[in-house]
Amino acid sequence: MAGVAWHYVLKFIITGDAAVGKSSLLIRLTDQRFLNNPDPTLGVEFGSKLITIPEENKVVKLQCWDTAGTESFRSITRSYYRGAAGCLLVYDVTSRQSFLNARTWLADVREHADPHLTCILVGNKIDLCSDDGQPGRRPREVPTEEGERWAKEEGLLFVEASAKSGENVEAAFVQATRDILNKIKRGM
Ligand code: GDP
């Protein structure tokens, strides 16, 4: 791979309800950091990250866009989705409402994005309901199997993650990127 900065540039969008952790996932991916109290008015809009897909021997530059607090406007639509190859559809495993609302977000993606877009459903904040006796735990409202089942029904990839601990954050992007590279190989 000597001399090659990257083989592909892929646009990703991150969508889902306010406060599910979209900005935090983006910051974790690009900056390996976590902010307990991010300023909601300073929504991170964009981040870029190089990842390697070893079995393909490929370096991929991810360009990730976050809705950055515009969830309530729902006017982002076409320009936001244009050219996107991947989408993280995020809910909070401690908020059933955010999981139910993911249906509306998916409908929006389906309406506006390229039909070949790869979408991964991400159940975020699993650190909150881990069983380690730390303070600040919250009960899980969406069992893993339920997220998994709905993702399967809708043809989405699926992962549970934590922007706080970092668990599965890069893995979510890598999983989606693998799927996109497979589609590119098949000429889709
Ligand atoms: P957004 O509105 O979807 O972009 O959500 P933010 O990234 O602003 O996060 C909303 C709140 O949830 C903030 O207080 C974050 O610190 C917190 N948060 C985000 N991700 C996680 C996570 O994985 N675990 C925990 N415990 N808190 C999180």
TrEMBL record:
One of its GO terms (molecular function) is GTP binding. Belongs to the small GTPase superfamily. Rab family. It holds the Pfam family Ras. Keywords: GTP-binding, Lipoprotein, Nucleotide-binding. This is Ras-domain-containing protein. The keyword Nucleotide-binding applies. InterPro entries: P-loop_NTPase (IPR027417), Rab_GTPases_membrane_traffic (IPR050209), Small_GTP-bd (IPR005225), Small_GTPase (IPR001806). NCBIfam families: small_GTP (TIGR00231).
